[in-house]
Write a structure and sequence with these properties.
The complex is a heterodimer. By secondary structure, chain A is mainly alpha-helical. Chain A has 6 helices and 4 strands. The longest helix of chain B is centred in the N-terminal third of the chain and has 28 residues. The chains are: A mainly alpha, B alpha/beta.
Chain lengths: 189, 313
Amino acid sequence: MLRWLLIIVTVATPVITGAEEADPYLAQTQLYPEAPPFTVAPRNYKKKFRHDCTRCHEAEDADPEPRRLKTRHIREIDHGGNRFWCLTCHDGENMDFLRTSRNEKIKFDQSYLICGSCHANRQKDWYFGAHGKRVSDWQGDRVILPCTQCHNPHSPATEARKPKPVPPVRIGLERQQAHIPAITQSWKP
Amino acid sequence: MASSKRKKEVKPEAVNQYRRGFLTRLGLTTATAVTSVSAHGAWSGKTMEDGFADFFQQHYQRMTAEELQETLRRIERKAKQQHGVRISCVDTPPLDGVVFGYAINISKCKGYRDCVEACVEENNLAPDIRYISVLELDEGSMNLELADRYYEHEEVPVEGKFYMPVQCMQCDNPPCVKACPVNATWKESDGIVVIDYDWCIGCRYCMAACPYSARFFNWTQPELPAERINTNTNYLGNRPRPAGVVEKCHFCTQRTRMGRQPACQEACPTGARIFGNLLDPKSEIRYVLENKGVFRLKEDLGTEPKFWYFSDR
């Protein structure tokens, strides 16, 4: 009797509570257990980011038909070459979460779990520190930035910007105009 | 006999009188000169004690702990008097079990020069010195002679170019250390090549020896505006330097030996810079060296730099 009760409870609990949210730490360690441990710094949003998607989307699920959206949403997604649209990453049923390619619910701060499903090499580099930025000291706890801190997911390419001023040429020197004879010209296709 | 009589014989008392008078006058003149001169700033406005102590200051590696502390206090006094700023100057010895390494991802460097500016602010550089130079090269070329370090564009990165910052490579086999005639520069146990600015004689042999043009000479007294001085300084690093000495990047010893990242790494917005301990097998720098296609500049010279470059392709 007790054994049956135990079995029923163990099976029923996940179904009842609807726990689909991926355990972030489990996902983190399962991907690359040999990576040095780290904490992800919470994303610092430059513009005021509205986290209250459910204000409009509580009543019903989002329309799954891929289309160009009108109100309050980003129209153009410069990512993926028109192969995906909003609900590829956003969870239509609960808009306060994102979804991975395996339809797991993840939080906005766990964006790295999605990005790696296409950008696996970059994600591996990020786990081990060859990509991304470590914002903590070189010694001690490792805190790294999430993908979305540097890459806007709707248009991830890094934008060009003005460089800091040109360094001064020291006294007695001149700015050298590189004299490029034909034989030393760098290879061009 | 006739010649000896013609010699004028001076009496001993007169000689003494003459000698005494001469010495008195000499003594008075010297005393006046010294007093007036020190009052007018012959020791650059320092006290005479500080002036003498500066002159007789021992090499960093030969100072006792007490002498070092006195030197640090004297440096703080000098900064207050020369720049009007109260700085703190400490000694940062190397950490055990640490050898520093640095890697730059040239796929991610966009040529912003944020690192250059951060270094200037952190290390109290004279207005015309930059420890870091960002080189702009054509894609497909590694000809450093054609690199442009004075690029001025409205926007970077420019199509068809890539960017490579260079700074002191902290070589493991440093030619500058071999060239220095007075041992004012040496490699420490954590791999950083440091300079004792007060021992440097300014001959610039090290600048001639460095293949990376990473060393810079202070032709004049550096003019540091008081409000921009970084007051957390250390002896072998970012304290205000005098005229006539050579300086260079030292991997921000005032920060890195306290566990912090160098200023350039912190400033880089794209995360192109990776700094860490080469002796820690789990460090990020070790992962980069073991898994990415890294290269160093002027490898054929055998300087063994501790500064690598790699790309994502």
